[in-house]
Design a protein that fits this description.
By secondary structure, the protein is an all-alpha fold. It contains six helices and no strands. Helix 1 packs across helix 5, helix 3 packs antiparallel against helix 5 and helix 4 runs antiparallel to helix 5. The radius of gyration is 17 Å and the shape is elongated.
Amino acid sequence: MKKIATAVAVTLLGASLAFAMPHDGGKGFGGHGAHDQQFAQQLNLTDAQKAQIESIRKATREQNKAFFEQSRSTMQEFFAAKEANDTAKMDALKPAMQSQRAQMKQIRAAEDAQIAKVLTAEQNAKWQQLKAEHAQKEHRQ
C-alpha cells in the first residue's frame, strides 16, 4: 500500500511539474503546442486573448523558475533513489515533494485566476467544464 501511495504521489507531482515547468519549445501560446491550440479552439479565443494568456504563462514560468528547477531536482533525486531501491532516501524526499506539490497547486491556481480574468463568462464556463473533464480522465488512470 505504501508503494502505491508513493507511486501516486510521484505521478501527481510529476504531472504538476510537467504542466508548469518552463517550456522553451515556442509552440503555441504557452509552449505547449497542440494542447494550447486545442484549448484556444475549444474556447474560441481571440488573438488578443491568446497573447494575454501567453504573457501570463510566461510570467508565471519566469517568476517561479528557481522553484521549478528545485522541484525537478527533487524529482530526479527521488527517481534515482527509487532506481537504487534506497527507501530511506525516498522517505526523506517525500515531505519535500509533498510541499512542492502543494506550492505547485498554489502557483497553478494563481495562474488560473489570472487567465480567468482574460476570458468571457461563456469561455470561463467552458474552461471549467474542460478542466473537470480532464480531472476525471486523470482520476480514472
